[in-house]
Amino acid sequence: MPPRRGRKVAGAVVTRRGWILFLAMSVIWGCPYLLIRIAVREISPATLIFLRTAPAALILLPLALHRRALSGLLVRWRWLVAFTLAELAVPWFFVGRAEIHLTSSVTGLLVASVPLVGAVLYRALGDDDFSRRRIAGLLIGFAGVAALVGVDLRGADVGPVLEVLVPAVGYAIGPLIVARKLDDLAGIGVITASLCIASVLYAPYAATHLPGSVSPEVVAAVAGLALVCTALAFVLFFELIVEVGPARSTVITYVNPAVAILLGVVVLGEPLTGGLVLGFPLILLGSWLATAPPSPSPASNPLAAEPPSA
Predict the structure, then answer these.
(1) I need a surface site. Which of 61, 97, 145, 261 has the fewest CB within 10 A?
(2) pLDDT tens track for 37-72
(3) Is the dihedral of CA 210, 215, 219, 222 positive or negative?
(4) Does the pLDDT at position 214 exceed 60?
């Protein structure tokens, strides 16, 4: 975890640096859906994961070593692998598969329902109670998902929609594993090790399924995913945690889908449909109502409060 000097206490005014980090993360973690949509036109989802995780791991590894953030990981290797599967290896594969058929806008908005899945999961495990506010949030949020699916998607899109549900569950499980089993470990160490594990898992497939040639557009998309949306994003995310605290940092969860929709419409020319217009505010409002605690208490490990990142 980054040094805690200069960390702002709860309730303090957010600094200019905090706002810059917040805006940067809101944009950076709203971009992956656009870049994945471009990349999977020519690269298989499994190969894309290797090309994304391997460079990011190589970049973050020296930083993690310098901060001595890898200590204690080996004895928790089982939970580290479980976190990798839940947060990176499995979700990114299914997001890539889904985006072969779904627009980046729709995928980004469906993944935004993660807080709703998390609220149900944590209640089922006895980690949380359902107040009237949270029940209302779940009803509103799932109504937004139903509006999006019902208005915009056809029967042929049911498979890809179900594939997006897999990342939604994974992104809900990942922070739970951190909170219960990896909470005392350095966040940058956990994510670096997870990227290494994911790259090793997908290396054999990627080695035999590299495309013969790719367009400059796809090369740029893969580079953006690896260098900006993964390596740089996690460095900035931990800096954001230090600057504003875990509770405030999760607000980017509600901005990322707007960025994903805007980029899909403006850059890729995706239609701004009635389902998006109706589902977007319902899903975000429902997620906020279903997950906002009465009095936020910061998680000791930033990854336990990490927003979903495709």
Answers:
(1) 61
(2) 999 999 999 999 999 999 999 999 999 999 999 999
(3) negative
(4) yes
Distance set, CA 197 to CA 54, 278, 307 (Å): 9, 39, 21
How many whole angstroms separate alpha carbon 215 and alpha carbon 8? 45
Averaged pLDDT, 1-15: 50
Question: How far apart are the C-alpha atoms of 64 and 70, rounded to whole Å?
Answer: 6
Q: From start to end of the chain, where are the E strands?
A: none
169-200 in b/e burial notation, b at 16+ Cβ within 10 A? bbbbbbbbbbbeebeebbbbbbbbbbbbbbbe
Least confident piece of the model among 65-74, 82-91, 170-179 = 170-179
Report how far residue 101's alpha carbon sits from residue 121's, in angstroms, rounded to the nearest whole number.
28
Contact 169, 60 (CB under 8 A): no
Report which of 71, 142, 96 is spatially closest to residue 289, judged by C-alpha positions.
142
Residue 133 — φ and ψ, nearest 5°? Answer: -60, -45
- Span 180-206, average pLDDT: 94
